[in-house]
Amino acid sequence: MSDHKKGLYSRDGGKGKRVRSGRNAGHQGRKGDVEKRERSSNRRYGPSRPRYREERMERRNNEPDLPEGIDIKDLDPLVLQDLQVLAMDNADAVAKHMITAIDLLEDDPKLALRHARAAKERAGRVGVAREVNGIVAYRAGEWKEALAELRAARRISGGPGMLAVMADCERGLGRPEKAIELGRSEEARLLDQDSHRELAIVVAGARLDMDQAESAVVTLERLDPQESDASESGVRLNYAYADALLQAGRVDDARRWFEVVLQADALETTDAASRLAALDEGHSSNAAE
């Protein structure tokens, strides 16, 4: 399996789409609060509720079919460890639905979301299952569902969770001010460097949503963009910085930073080349006039 896909299955992350438990951040949730919520939830949704078993069987009968040949060992060992709280057959099915969901993300996000939901329905109290559902819903553009699932994952597992994704969901729901609030939260201080950069990029985007281009520039400058930084998160940071500079009317500075990105972006993960071409075309048009 490629490193890219392994990163998607791993708590330790990869390619900006991490499946990671907050416990790795060294921060535990409030166990008593979680237990109280679970007891309350059980009264409404648990096995004693009328038709619970019938509805569960109906949901499982409506699950999407799993392809042949899935190896659950493709999942990170820590994720598999989390699934050990489930019955063996159920854990196996959850793992396979999670793997299939990630595999389908690029080609068929709607079907990927059906698999992620199936995993969540089978393992609703397992934080990583809720997290995967949230990430896949986010990629499918289901902002409200993604936000709810990622919040649930944080309640179960603790830690800063997927703050950048949650903040971007707030933007998708038309609430950029909420995204900015997440950027100022105590949990944001617990993020590693790459996650902190991702959150700053989203917060800068929220500033742009609110027509606050200069504030977006300042947000990104706090992370000290470096021209020599060719890491994936560094390239993304520099690209966001170039875009914010352009939105703020600092065209020459923006062109320089787009050139920096173009030089470092060997895998062409950004559209820096087309952005530069557009700037050059605009410059030529203005000169002709």
TrEMBL record:
Source species, domain of life: Bacteria
Disordered as annotated region, ranges: 1-71
Chain intervals with Basic and acidic residues compositional bias: 30-41, 51-63
Protein name per UniProt: Tetratricopeptide repeat protein
